[in-house]
Amino acid sequence: MSKETIGFVGTGVMGGPMALHLLNAGYSVCVYNRTKAKAEAILEAGGTWMESPGELAAACDIICTMVGYPTDVESTYFGDDGLINRAKTGALFIDFTTSRPDLAVRIAEAAEKAGKASLDAPVSGGDKGAREAKLSIMVGGSESAYQRARPVLEIVGANIVYQGPAGSGQHTKMCNQIAVAASTMGACEALRYAEQSGLDPATVLQSISAGAAGSWSLSNLAPRILKGDFEPGFYVHHFIKDLKIAIESAESMAIELPGLQLALKLYEELAAMGHEQDGTHALMHWYRSKDS
Amino acid sequence: MSKETIGFVGTGVMGGPMALHLLNAGYSVCVYNRTKAKAEAILEAGGTWMESPGELAAACDIICTMVGYPTDVESTYFGDDGLINRAKTGALFIDFTTSRPDLAVRIAEAAEKAGKASLDAPVSGGDKGAREAKLSIMVGGSESAYQRARPVLEIVGANIVYQGPAGSGQHTKMCNQIAVAASTMGACEALRYAEQSGLDPATVLQSISAGAAGSWSLSNLAPRILKGDFEPGFYVHHFIKDLKIAIESAESMAIELPGLQLALKLYEELAAMGHEQDGTHALMHWYRSKDS
After folding, report:
1. How many Cβ atoms are within 10 Å of A110's Cβ, its own excluded?
2. Do A255 and B138 touch (CB under 8 A)?
3. C-alpha–C-alpha distance, residues B55 and B53, integer Å
4. Partners of residue A161 in chain B, C-beta under 8 Å
5. Is there a catalytic annotation at residue A173?
6. What is the mean pLDDT of residues A93-112?
7. What pTM was estimated for this model as a whole?
8. DSSP assignment string, B1-13
9. Which residues lie closer than 8 Å to B65 by C-beta, 6 or more apart?
């Protein structure tokens, strides 16, 4: 049985390495990206360039997307030249973008109506996880679509969990970002207290990182903060996008998440200070700016 | 060389097991506790009962304290029958209580003036850490006092870190509690979002616990929340005490820690709801009470 042809829309820092892994696993891979230059590595490795998402959809069996914002997802999937309209009957969509749960449901409904299937499958693990094919993938959609996608997901991910019907992958990613926001805030506040009270923050980390205060943020972001390294792992402006989706979603469910609201407020102030293109741990600048 | 005699004031869920470990390590241990019944296990194991902290201080070389609140620390150390006045010249105090950094400095100054030495050495690791002698101990005070105390600390702790002059141990513990508060809040908010969005929260944890969202709270408290087990590891009312100390201390340093302020507000509302005697992860009840 010959392998299905895979299309990949969005070959940036995340989608690029993911598409390469699929190529290296023996799949035929068609690619489209708004900026063609960012697809060059994949084309050199044997990928096929497509002139539009619609053209790509018409040529592929499984169509992956990893684009920026929910508005990008929407314009890629819908419309006359969109993926849903142009894909062949029986095609499967996998959206790796972190996007709105309600949009994932809309895509799933439209896809089903058109005789196609879809999954929302946002990831965590960052560009490092993408390069090393160790992404955590949170999957929403029908179980049959999940079973069909599983061999593809296994090529790019390490912790692949089926979470439930359409939108469940996005909801799970929101849970992830909510916890990330709180622990990043906590790491920054602990460090801020440490430096202002005359402690050596690195020595403080030796006391607190392994116990009940421990978190990925404290173990991974705090040491970078202390080195003055604010390079993005994950961009502030992308994180703001995610936190906004989480808050809108929480509001639609009528639940109160004051920690999440506070985190978004601080990150928006941080962005206004000019740190949109820094990593999320640049939140430390917010705290340091509040010296009185 | 015969071992120094150790006194232990406060033999509750933390101090009790610690005093027992010291006895079992071959030290002579004198004990005092407000409620004598809570010292029985130590007396049966060979400890010596003392009628007051002052009497205990007069009989010992190293005097450990593990009492409840800063006001208890203050009344134990100061006054005519207090530890500082009654202890022999050359005695060493080790306060394991989580207490005010400025009080630790006052004790250190008064002790030095009286020809005695002191350390602030708050711990983390809970009653389990105390029973297993695996506490993390954050030490503030003079380096010579630290070197003298080290053999004693090694009997009750596993991660013993010298943090600097008097008060530094307490400041480090505040850093710890600040990070704990944020990650506990994050774990509760992630679970609240999960359960309200129709996800299976336990399946969500499979996706998010091992990555960037990971924390001790998410790995250890979240599963207990899902089982409906709100037994204290650490009591809400003790946590409120700690968060208040952290906030007063942050205010005195003129730094803004809005996450910490939010956490205290939520925990005070939780206590007002009747959850003072539950574990800190009972914070989940706050979120569940906000259904609209």
Report:
1. 17
2. no
3. 6
4. 203, 206-207
5. yes
6. 98
7. 0.96
8. -PPPPEEEE--ST
9. B8, B9, B10, B73, B76, B77, B83, B93, B94, B95, B96, B97
Number of C-beta neighbours around residue B251 at 10 A:
12
Closest CA to B266 of A260, A171, A184, A193: A260
Indicate the residue type of A190.
Answer: A
Per-residue pLDDT of chain B (292 residues; tens, 9 = 90+): 468 999 999 999 999 999 999 999 999 999 999 999 999 999 999 999 999 999 999 999 999 999 999 999 999 999 999 999 999 999 999 999 999 999 999 999 999 999 999 999 999 999 899 999 999 999 999 999 999 999 999 999 999 999 999 999 999 999 999 999 999 999 999 999 999 999 999 999 999 999 999 999 999 999 999 999 999 989 999 999 999 999 999 999 999 999 999 999 999 999 999 999 999 999 999 999 997 5
Q: Which of B174, B180, B217 lies at the smallest CB-CB distance from A193?
A: B174
Q: How many CB atoms lie within 10 A of CB B143?
A: 11
Kindly report the backbone phi and psi dihedral angles of residue B65, in degrees, each rounded to the nearest multiple of 5, phi listed first.
-130, 140
Say which amino acid occupies A193: Y
Q: Residue A175 and residue A173: Cα distance in Å, rounded?
A: 5
Do A42 and A31 meet the contact criterion of CB atoms below 8 Å apart?
yes
Looking at beta carbons, which residues of chain B come within 8 Å of A207? 136, 138, 159, 161, 163, 172, 175-176
What gap in Å lies between CA B286 and CA B266, rounded to an integer?
7
* C-alpha triplet A281, A284, A288: angle, nearest 5°: 165
Q: Which residues of chain A neighbour B192 with C-beta distances below 8 Å?
A: 255, 257
ipTM: 0.97
CB proximity A203 to B under 8 Å: yes
Taking only the tens place, the pLDDT of each residue in A132-142 is 999 999 999 99
Amino acid identity of residue B91, one-letter, is A
Strands (E), B21-156: 29-32, 48-49, 62-65, 92-95, 117-120, 123-124, 135-141
Q: Which of A136, A153, A204 to mutate to test the interface with B (most CBs of B within 10 A)?
A: A204
pLDDT band for position A44 (cuts 50, 70, 90)? very high
Residue A79: C-alpha distances to residues A9, A18, A66, A139 (Å):
16, 26, 18, 25
- Is the Cβ pair B182, A185 closer than 8 Å? yes
Longest dimension (CA), chain B: 69
Q: What single DSSP character describes residue B61?
A: S
Q: What share of chain A is helix, strand, coil (3-state, %, to 5)?
A: 55, 15, 30
Whether A207 and B259 lie within 8 Å, measured CB to CB:
no
Q: Do strands A123-124 and A135-141 pair parallel, antiparallel, or not at all (unpaired)?
A: antiparallel
